[in-house]
């Protein structure tokens, strides 16, 4: 089993990186690695790992839904709330019905079997959509109208709806229905009456449990201080979130995945600093979870059955997306302030399939339902076609179809390259400047540029200065630069060219002019630099 995880993590990581270098979504490389490592090609993954794939996928989906909840913007959702709710029901329902009707004609399915296929195909993939939408939020695309937030919320609600209907259909078609007035396909009138109530109950109870769990997290992690760092915060939050998912499987009266997403959403409102720490922790957890999810996804795909249904399967996907889902998109955004370009973005932004299809695609076949092999093949085809296409299309079409707004760093983890500029001369004060720069760089995981402006050639002293920088910044990525010119102007110019976040500079003590940066230099930089400046003097600093 250990070897299998080594292959999954190692080959999955490099498969994703190779895909990125080829300008292809990383998940494509991971899925291909999974196909190669899976039982149909190399057979390098232990059967025990494949048996545990469902559990591992559950952990990965939990991580991505927590990231989604921690990235939601309550104000934008309130502004587009009706659109988000409609996106949660109409596109999925319309696509499921369109797929059911098409399957009745193409595969001669009865309506309920076709609707089961529609529920599988219509579910949206959080593993593709959530990272894509969070990436758009971090760049500002569509944030003014809350488009990424509406898509995130809508995709979570649609999965609740379709998974519930799927589970009911699976029970009816595999085991028969309870007493009641019989309708075509074996569904009872009593079950139809209860279905809307079950859906509402699962959603409401899921949100309430998410709220209560968020309250519990705030109490444990901030008020009672049971944890000491972000890693421990993430460990507790992930464990409670998984507990909800497991409880929902044992007691299916609420949506566990919706509850997980609600935890992140309410954590932002209850304790923003805690939400920020959790966002960082789950970002790190997703690095591993993403590889495991998509490699195991590829390993579960049965290639031999794809050839039989390739063309009719593609036709089913086209009908479901371009007819059924398009009608749902139109109805969802009717009367909203979205323009036609933003509505058109729903095609690449809200169509990807992967996670749900991998989790439930094989259940009809395992339950002995007629047509189960065809259902599994179409589910696999939907993953291979729409997951990489969606992962590529979201960042590609967002700049063309959406407007760019201001990024809210309190709702997303905004990552950027942070650079500290340390300005040094050949005096003893250089050690204090380098030490301060190193301290700042370690706090923010930054890079450093060490700048020495040459006023008098002395190669031996410069070599010693470079050696000192190497020693004090040994654990920090840095580069040493020597330039000639006016000291203040050169410092400000280099800071602008490299886009540094802060400048660390020394102030003259009592040494001679040719040994240290004079006070007038630091003062000139303070007055002319648009970038924050930290001045170091005699083991003290002022900013």
Automatic annotation (TrEMBL):
Protein name as catalogued: Sodium:proton antiporter
Cellular component terms per the entry's GO annotation: membrane
Alphabetized SUPFAM superfamilies for the sequence: Adenine nucleotide alpha hydrolases-like (SSF52402)
Occurrences of domain UspA (ranges): 420-536
Matching InterPro entries: Cation/H_exchanger_TM, CPA1_transporter, Na+/solute_symporter_sf, Rossmann-like_a/b/a_fold, Universal_stress_UspA, UspA
Residue intervals of the Cation/H+ exchanger transmembrane domain: 14-390
Topological type in the membrane: Multi-pass membrane protein
Localization, UniProt: Membrane
Gene Ontology MF term list: antiporter activity
Protein's UniProt keywords contain Ribosomal protein: no
Transmembrane segments: 45-66, 87-109, 115-134, 146-173, 193-218, 254-272, 284-303, 309-332, 375-394
Family designation: Belongs to the universal stress protein A family.
One Gene Ontology term from the biological process aspect of the record: proton transmembrane transport
């Amino acid at each position: 089993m250990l070897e299998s995880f080594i292959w999954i993590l190692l080959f999955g990581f490099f498969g994703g990186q190779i895909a990125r270098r080829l300008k292809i979504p990383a998940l494509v490389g991971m899925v291909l690695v999974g196909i190669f490592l899976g039982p149909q090609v190399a057979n390098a993954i232990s059967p025990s790992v494949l048996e545990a794939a469902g559990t591992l996928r559950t952990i990965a989906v939990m991580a991505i839904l927590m990231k989604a909840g921690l990235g939601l913007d309550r104000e934008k959702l309130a502004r587009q709330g009706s659109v988000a709710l409609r996106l949660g029901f109409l596109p999925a329902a319309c696509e499921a019905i369109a797929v059911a009707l098409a399957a009745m004609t193409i595969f001669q399915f009865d309506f309920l079997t076709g609707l089961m296929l529609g529920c599988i195909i219509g579910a949206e993939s959080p593993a593709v959509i959530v990272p894509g939408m969070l990436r758009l939020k971090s760049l500002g695309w569509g944030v003014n109208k809350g488009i990424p937030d509406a898509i995130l919320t809508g995709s979570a609600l649609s999965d609740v709806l379709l998974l519930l209907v799927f589970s009911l259909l699976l029970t009816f078609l595999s085991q028969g229905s309870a007493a009641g007035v019989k309708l075509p396909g074996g569904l009872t009138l009593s079950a139809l009456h209860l279905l809307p109530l079950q859906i509402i109950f699962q959603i409401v109870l899921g949100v309430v449990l998410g709220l209560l769990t968020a309250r519990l997290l705030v109490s444990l992690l901030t008020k009672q201080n049971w944890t000491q760092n972000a890693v421990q915060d993430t460990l507790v939050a992930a464990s409670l979130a998984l507990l909800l998912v497991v409880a929902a499987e044992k007691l299916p009266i609420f949506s566990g995945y919706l509850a997980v997403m609600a935890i992140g959403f309410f954590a932002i409102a209850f304790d923003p600093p805690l939400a920020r720490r959790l966002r960082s922790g789950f970002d790190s957890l997703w690095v591993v979870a993403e590889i495991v999810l998509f490699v195991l996804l590829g390993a579960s795909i049965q290639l031999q059955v794809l050839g039989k249904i390739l063309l009719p399967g593609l036709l089913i996907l086209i009908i479901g997306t371009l007819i059924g889902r398009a009608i749902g998109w139109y109805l969802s955004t009717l009367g909203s302030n979205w323009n036609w370009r933003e509505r058109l973005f729903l095609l690449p932004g809200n169509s990807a399939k992967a996670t749900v299809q991998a989790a439930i695609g094989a259940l009809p076949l395992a339950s002995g339902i007629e047509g189960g092999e065809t259902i599994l093949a179409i589910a696999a085809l939907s993953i291979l076609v729409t997951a990489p296409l969606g992962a590529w299309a979201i960042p590609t079409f967002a700049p063309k179809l959406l407007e760019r707004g201001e990024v809210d760093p309190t709702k997303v983890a905004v990552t950027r390259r942070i650079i500290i500029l340390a300005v040094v001369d050949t005096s003893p004060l250089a050690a204090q400047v380098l030490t301060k720069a190193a301290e700042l760089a370690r706090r923010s995981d930054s890079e450093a540029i060490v700048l020495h402006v040459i006023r008098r050639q002395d190669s031996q002293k410069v070599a010693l200065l470079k050696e000192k920088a190497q020693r004090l910044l040994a654990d920090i990525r840095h580069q040493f630069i020597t330039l000639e010119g006016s000291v203040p102007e050169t410092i400000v110019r280099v800071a602008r060219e490299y886009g540094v976040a802060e400048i660390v500079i020394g102030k003259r003590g009592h040494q001679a002019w040719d040994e240290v940066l004079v006070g007038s230099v630091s003062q000139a930089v303070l007055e002319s630099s648009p970038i924050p400046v930290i001045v170091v003097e005699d083991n003290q600093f002022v900013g």
